[in-house]
Amino acid sequence: MRESGAVFELEGVRFGYKNKEILRGINLTLKKGESLGIVGESGSGKTTLLSLLLRLAKPQRGSISFFGQPFEAMNRQDIRSFRARVQPVFQDPYLSLDPSQRIEGIVGEPLDSLKLVSDKAERRSKIADALERAGIDPGAMRRFPVEFSGGQRQRIAIARALVCEPEVLIADEPVSALDIITKIEILNLIREIKESRDFTLIFVSHDLPAVADIASRIAVIDRGEIIEDAPAGELLASPRHERTRLLLESNIEL
């Protein structure tokens, strides 16, 4: 199938759970190479939106397309390709890494599950390269997560996302569990990787300044609706919606 269109295009996406509407008519288009920040308070619908984008849940109404192909039209081969091309980095590095696995197994998991390498030498080379790009010594492959700090664990999680050379990186609150110094380091790392690899980035957080530091465009979600979507500089300088202004003021010290 020849691909066309935006990386992601959402039209009228709705999702609810136990008679509660969580997302209400989401319309969103993401172009190739963009850095999109999605900002909202806890309970605004950010995590649910990411679950839909990652195909971990299905919208109850509306449609989601990936490079012009509707999610519902994807066959097994399409889905496997999607899993390699779109990779997540989750919030808590203490929970997202299996403590019983060595770093080599953790970072190499996407390669194994998606059958992206043909031999052990290629696998080890890709793991070492991903670790190095994330700022972790490849010599740490045989160690366990418990031997690393929170910031180092998040770097390992980033390496796991990078190992299959994704076209889209989705980072869900990747710095919220870190101290301020480590937060800055991880933000700088993601920015540097984005500049060198030029993938499409979705960065989700309740921390508007952190998002503005890395995203060129910001969408603000509130109670299941996107209430504002604008270039980052424009949104920070003159937010149009009252909820955006309140969100900015609540994070101003950060």
Can you summarize this structure?
The protein contains 9 helices and 10 strands. A hairpin with a 2-residue loop joins strand 1 (8-17) and strand 2.
Structural description of this entry:
The chain is α/β, with parallel strands linked by helices and 254 residues long. The protein has a single domain, classed as P-loop containing nucleotide triphosphate hydrolases (Rossmann fold). A six-stranded mixed beta sheet has the order 6-7-8-3-9-10, with helices on both faces. Strands 2-1-4-5 form a four-stranded antiparallel beta sheet, covered by helices on one side. Helix 5 packs parallel to helix 6.
The CATH architecture designation is 3-Layer(aba) Sandwich
Question: What's the CATH C level?
Answer: Alpha Beta
Distance between the termini: 46 Å
Q: Strand share of the residues? A: 15-25%
Task: Provide tags for this entry.
10 strands; 254 residues; 9 helices; alpha/beta; Rossmann fold; globular; 24% strand; six-stranded mixed beta sheet; four-stranded antiparallel beta sheet
